[in-house]
Amino acid sequence: MTITIRDVAEKAGVAPSTVSRVIADSPSISEKTKKKVRQVMQALHYIPNTSAQNLARSHSQTIGIVLPKDSDAFYQNPFFPTVLRGINDEAAKHDYSILLSTGNTNEDRMQHVQQMVLGHQVEGLIFLYALQEDPLIDFALANHFPMIVIGSPDNIHVNSVDNYNEEIAREATEHLINQGCQHLLWVGGDPTQRFIQLREQGFREVLTKYQLEITEDQLINDVEFLPYEGYQLAKRLTETNAPFDGIVVADQLIARGIREYFAYHPTLTAPKLITFKSYQQERHGNPLRESYINLKSQKLGSHSVSLLFDIMRLNQPDNEEERIIHDYIKSSLITEEETASAETMNPDL
Known about the structure:
By secondary structure, the chain is an alpha/beta fold. 45% of the residues lie in helices and 14% in strands. It contains 14 helices and 12 strands. It has helices at residues 5-12, 16-23, 31-43, 50-57, 72-76, 79-93, 106-118, 135-142, 165-178, 194-209, 227-239, 252-264, 297-314, 336-341, and strands at 62-66, 97-101, 124-127, 147-150, 160-162, 184-187, 219-220, 246-249, 272-277, 290-294, 326-328, 332-334. The strands form 2 sheets. It has a 6-stranded parallel sheet with strand order 2-1-3-4-5-11, sandwiched between helices. A 6-stranded mixed sheet has the order 7-6-8-9-10-12. α1 packs across α2, α9 crosses α10 (194-209) and α11 (227-239) packs across α12. It is elongated, with a radius of gyration of 26 Å. It starts with a helix and ends in an 8-residue tail after the last helix.
């Protein structure tokens, strides 16, 4: 049997509203009454429902974090713990907590988001991915719920913060060309991810600019974001004598697998490789002459929280101001010379 505030009030001989004020430690209630009510609460094993109290105040002090579909690639990818660190650090500064939501199926994920929004469990949502025609984002939009996407959603009416994906892909591709590469490969991954689409577009633009050949064989988008996939891809390319001297890799896990393949086969000529990493880190003597783009993912996370608070403020009923936020975090190119001399990992660099 569930014990309610009414049960406590009846046993203590006070009104239910008095019990509520005792739970809130209201100064309007005498210490004598507080002591009596708390003794009854203890005797009845009554535990206040803090979620219900927050609901009554419409103030949960919680931000919902919507993660991608549960997968090995998610748990292994350094992007997610790095961006979550930024989110958690910034939320804690404002005495907010975070509530994570994921699932194995789209139905599970939708149910979790509906519970957070309709159950008033959170005050705003941060999506850690951007897909085309995402029903979860559509649901939040339909409910006029404060949210922001870390990524580049295909809907211009969705608040977002991201890197300049086309620009960083152009920068990465030009860097390899300036290093002497003439036969370049693009290794993307999930083609439904907007950042993959935008980075591939940047890659194509640079090859067109330098009048370099672009064939379908140079565009690889059928690999998962896992080191094993990168290893097998490098194996397949070398066994078929694919003519390439530089690779632009959209995801650092795939790049790790490619590096490992050439580390295990030192007699092979390793191509130049450039990828996109969540933070600047120490070089570990890998055989590839490697440069990379530092995405500064921790800053992406912390900035998303700051923007979400702005969105929540703008979302107040008495606020007539309405605007969509599209913001960007500037990344940085880390050259192979800088990589070789780096000694420490610093997510904020």
